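F.,

This is the one I mentioned.
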């Protein structure tokens, strides 16, 4: 599983999807999240602005990444 490292206390779900390279744009992230295609810690989340913190695991289209903090 890939680790996405952030410097701040949190990153928003849409931004994390872009940072992980799983979507190409904010619009694509918004659609994926609103359509219920994204899971956070094993549960579907439809809030693009959901704040992710260290240890959260995001799954989209069979690929997962975890949030780490530097």
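My design for it:
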């Amino acid at each position: 599983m890939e680790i996405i490292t952030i410097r701040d206390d949190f990153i928003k779900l849409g931004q994390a999807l872009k940072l992980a390279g799983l979507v190409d744009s904010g619009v694509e992230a918004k659609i994926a999240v609103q359509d219920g295609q994204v899971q956070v810690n094993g549960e579907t989340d439809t809030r693009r602005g959901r704040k992710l913190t260290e240890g959260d695991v995001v799954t989209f289209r069979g690929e997962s990444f975890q949030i780490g903090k530097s």
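The helical segments are 13-19, 26-34.

Talk soon.
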